[in-house]
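Researcher: I need the complex structure. Ligand is zinc ion. Inputs:
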Amino acid sequence: MSEPAASNPLLALQTHLPPSFDEIAPEHVEPAISQLLEDLHQAMAQIEADVQPTWSSRIEDLTRRFEPLQLAWGAVGHLTGVRNSPELRAAHEAVQPAVVELLTRVGQSQPLYAAAVALRDGPDGSSLDEAQRRVLDASIRGAELSGVALEGSQKARFNEIQMELAELSTTFSNNVLDATKAYELILRSPAEVDGLPTTARELAAQSYREARGAEAGAPQAAEDEATAEQGPWRITLDGPSLSPFLQHATRRDLREQVYRAYVSRASEGDTDNRRVIDRILLLRAEKAGLLGFADFASLSLARKMADSVAEIRDLLGELRERAWPAAQRDHEELQAFAVEHGFEGELRHWDVGFWAERLREHRYAITDEQLRPYFPLPKVLDGLFALAERLFEVKVVAADGEAPVWHEDVRFFRIVDASSGAPRAAFYLDPYSRPAEKRGGAWMADCLGRSTTLAGPGEAVRLPIAYLVCNGTPPVGERPSLMTFREVETLFHEFGHGLQHMLTTVDRDGAAGIDNVEWDAVELPSQFMENWCYHQPTLRGFSGHWETGDPLPQALFDKLLAARTYRAGSDTLRQLYFGLTDLALHDGYQPSTERSPFDVQREVAESCTVLTPLPEDRFLCAFSHIFAGGYAAGYYSYKWAEVLSADAFGAFEDAGLEDDAAVRATGRRFRDTVLALGGSRHPMKVFEAFRGRGPATEALLRHAGLTG
Ligand code: ZN
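Model: Output:
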């Protein structure tokens, strides 16, 4: 028997109200989403027949039309991240393909595409404002990049390529996964795990128990009871197992074994990705050609802030020039330090991580546990909100209970104008880790976006609501959540994303907040906020010992600051190595027997690695970012956005961080440009409006200690 629609909370969501998280349950998902999809499929022919080349028809009417699905699917997606369960996952998986299918149909709709083009090029086109124009352009470009403008055999070929690329990307990640799983190093004597911290030994023993327990029908032997103290220990190529081993294991020969296995992962046998890479690169080049681009890099840049490969190469080249000598110095220092502490010979690849950790301990001797007591979450929030008020003239007010939440630890806040008290936005904060039901990592996502089209009854505009989700240390008993410094930085980071979503002043659908912000510019406000964690007066405001209230001692702050730039040259160079290899592979290069992708990797390595890669180093075979993720010809974005965020913070330094009036004035300008304008203007124009000039690398280099 089917439920009446009214009793399904996913069908009763209101465009202008927070979702009813206290009512939504997994059993509501399938019936609600199926019904919404069916309604839209049935309406599609009519929607396509009715669409007019006007803003109100093509954009606003469509926005309203799709809002019920947007609301319901948005709430479901959010819950899969924060309140997962086998039931919810099954329901989500059951309807997801149908949702994707509908969205693809809409994205590739010929009549909707034609209406957008007619609006842009027709009589109404000239009266569109900049935000409208950008929304239209993005929608037209999106359709074109999915092949809507192609015809006949070209279209057929394009669809074939898309299909094959999707399969290749899955094959690529499966190979990486299988190759990673296939490797294990079993250690049985305590001497072999000498140096490994307790947490790593615990993990290695647990990994042994799980792997042996998982072998079907294996009889329980005494050694299945692996323990952290007695072993056996199982080391794998998974990050949490591999990194501590390379950093701490004193057995050099074992580090070498693991390192060699790691860099040649997925490059031979059943899980060989070499041919997959060749094929992906060839198909990407062909796809770019069909869409009228010279190469895949140009296609990728069509949707990014950076204009050209040359512009990116200039920027990365500038950073490389500073990072290269610094990385050489890092290496010489490390070599000298190692020799001083009993090492003989030249450091090899498997020695670098190990000695870098020894040198770090030697210099900065600072642990998470020393810092934690100074960062109780409530104090950190107070300091963060005070900073937002000082910089952006907004007040954050606790509003717990004013919106239904999905877990009792989740808090709800409102943001109001500090002078008038007028409401601006709201956000949820889900601060603690809940491994059983919550995805790892931290993220900001939009719950509702600012919109006049979707305003509620009697409202001029719908105000934005954000989700801020972290995985911080939970409170224990009476003790509040005591955060690591990294957790504090993460909170500031996500709050920065949230500010761009929440303090937008754009009313146009598709351009408010983080909507329509280019991929390589998205991390600007978030990384910008992280800088304040290292600003001492700000830090004094958000640190306070949870028992005594004392601020963080000067000596600890000094170490924290010094540790920030430790091996920055080496780390920067490594990112440039990845970014430049990615660019070189997508910028007109075609795989051939004369010049394989690994030859390209080696050419880039000449100017980007201090130690020449080993002959068997085929890290490309596991470079999932660019072969199985969204970063193809886009890996540079990490550094690109870091230049922007550091330079934005540089504006505050230029104005004088100790000059309160100047900081406030600069903060208002940041709010009125970067935070307010969102996707309504090209990010370069937004940046220039804030900074008075284009981005420069000076601040990033200075913060990283790379100017000397
Ligand atoms: Zn981010």
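Model: Summary of the prediction. Residues 493, 497, 523, 526 surround zinc ion (CB under 6 Å).
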